[in-house]
Design a protein that fits this description.
single chain; 492 residues; Uridine Diphospho-n-acetylenolpyruvylglucosamine Reductase, domain 2; Uridine Diphospho-n-acetylenolpyruvylglucosamine Reductase, domain 3; seven-stranded antiparallel β-sheet; 18 strands; 33% helix; globular
């Protein structure tokens, strides 16, 4: 099959799946389809042509084989919590939902492994592992609802990725359905398997290389001691200076998080987290490890924070207080809804040393454009999550917010950073890829994609700024992103 052949119809796929997938799990009613028109990035909406609620890996494979046969685009979706439009459906394609594949097949503390389906919720893995002395380290803010399959697709991180790394550091092997419908296993459970790192290529590929149907993940031993501290500062500059000093002292906390005054205001209104009154910024630092090591690091962190100007410094004395400190940070994205009817969540990265300058410039951009920006970020690795606030009912407000959002990403690139740290590129940031990468870079990436998906049916229109014809030599095509051209009402 070549790319010159026309795309088929979802009707043909639907006919193929009758008798293979339960009729109740083949959704065609417009009222049902609209439920799946977006992921966590609600600004982009596309009603899918067909939604399939798969129950097994074999059903996923049957769906994809049919899509490949008829050359119908497909998009995989887990819990739908992604923030970059990675699971934005195709108007003339199939949305393959994996949330019903939720069996936790094995919990093996003897070799620190768990075997899980893609629909298993992130936090469930830790809950099952904790009585055995282990947990699953990647912890996105949405961990109470996000799925392992989505974590694999986006290479999710979370507050504790500073010390423990992203999802890619915790996945050993994957069962996947390729874009041709073949069921294969990538990787092994060996610590250093031979051959190309296909698991590394697949994790973070945002559904463009296939659909994960089972994962072998690494479990991390629970630390002997955990200390969580909350420090209040008058400004983000002071909190940022404390962060840099902590890292410079050779301390690698499990997490270092900063929230600015606007984000604190939202969190207080939403969950009454009890952060220091009058703080221009709060710093959340979590230390874990051997008891004596944590004791020493805690003393150093307290000294550094006081030298940086903290006016309130407190440590959680038990698990309940630790959860209370984290409640404000974990709820920050949703909490912003208390102070703004609409907002855009961004995900840029800058070097830690650039944080003060970048935050000041973001404040200037906010003031110049008249658009409020709340800041919540993983300070330890410079991963910013600016929340650009607006009211879509006001004329021109959405456009101003998108302009500010883009200026923030440009600012990250200018300072040697990245347009994404953990939320992915998806549909939202594809147009920024040429600002980070050369034409040759993008062509090389596309060749990898083409090797997996020669017909370009796996999550088309995502990650790269233009669709590429895998049967031809890849090239960069100038112009607007196809989703922009479609006005988000339909996809090419």
């Amino acid at each position: 099959m070549t790319n010159s052949q026309p795309r088929g119809s979802v009707t043909a796929v639907l006919e193929d799946l009758r008798g293979v997938v339960a009729a109740a799990h083949l959704l065609t009613d417009p009222a049902q389809l609209v439920t799946y028109e977006c992921d966590g990035l609600a600004a982009y909406r596309v009603t899918p042509g067909l939604v399939v609620l798969a129950d097994t890996a074999e059903e996923v494979a049957a769906v994809v084989r049919s899509c490949a046969r008829h050359r119908v685009p497909f998009v995989a979706r887990g819990s739908g919590t992604g923030l970059s439009g990675g699971a934005l459906p195709h108007a003339e394609g199939v949305l393959v939902v994996t949330s019903r594949l939720r069996t936790l097949h094995a919990m093996r503390p003897e070799d620190q492994r768990a075997v899980v389906d893609p629909g298993v919720i992130n936090l469930q893995v830790s809950r099952e592992a904790t009585p055995l002395g282990y947990y699953f380290a990647p912890d996105p803010s949405s961990q109470q609802i996000c799925s392992i399959g989505g974590n694999v697709a986006e290479n999710s991180g979370g507050a504790h990725c500073l010390k423990y790394g992203f999802t890619s550091n915790h996945v050993l092997a994957l069962d996947v359905v390729t874009p041709t419908g073949e069921q294969v296993t990538l990787g092994t459970e060996a610590p250093d398997p031979p051959g190309y790192d296909l698991v590394g290529a697949f994790v973070g590929s945002e559904g463009t290389l296939g659909v994960a149907t089972r994962a072998v993940v690494r479990l991390t031993r629970l630390p002997e001691e955990v200390r969580t501290v909350l420090a209040g500062f008058r400004s983000t500059d002071q909190a940022g200076a404390a962060t840099s000093a902590i890292i410079a002292a050779g301390i690698v906390p499990a997490a270092i998080e900063i929230m600015d005054a606007l984000a604190i205001e939202a969190a207080e209104k939403a969950v009454s987290c009890g952060y220091p009154a009058g703080a221009g910024a709060v710093l959340v630092v979590e230390l874990d490890g051997a008891e004596q090591e944590v004791e020493h690091e805690y003393a150093e962190v307290e000294r550094i924070c006081r030298e940086a100007g903290t006016f309130e410094f407190r440590m959680a004395t038990d698990a309940a207080e630790r959860a209370e400190i984290w409640k404000g940070r974990k709820s920050a994205f949703a909490a912003v809804g208390r102070i703004s009817p609409d907002y855009i969540v961004q995900d840029g990265v800058v070097p830690r040393t650039s944080l003060p300058e970048v935050l000041r410039r973001m404040g200037e951009i906010s003031a110049e454009r008249g658009v409020r920006v709340a800041n919540v970020f993983h300070a330890g690795d410079g991963n910013l999550h600016p929340l650009v606030l607006f009211d879509a009912s006001e004329e021109g407000a959405t456009e101003r917010a998108e302009e500010v959002s883009g200026m923030i990403l440009d600012l990250c690139i200018e300072h040697g950073g990245s347009i994404t740290g953990e939320h992915g590129v998806g549909a939202d940031k594809a147009r920024y890829m040429p600002r980070m990468f050369t034409d040759d870079d993008l062509d090389t990436m596309q060749l990898v994609r083409c090797a997996f998906d020669p017909d370009g049916i796996a999550n088309p229109g995502k990650v790269y700024p233009t669709p590429r014809l895998c049967g031809e030599r890849p090239r960069v095509v100038q112009g607007a992103h196809p989703l922009q051209e479609a006005g988000m009402a339909e996809v090419f």
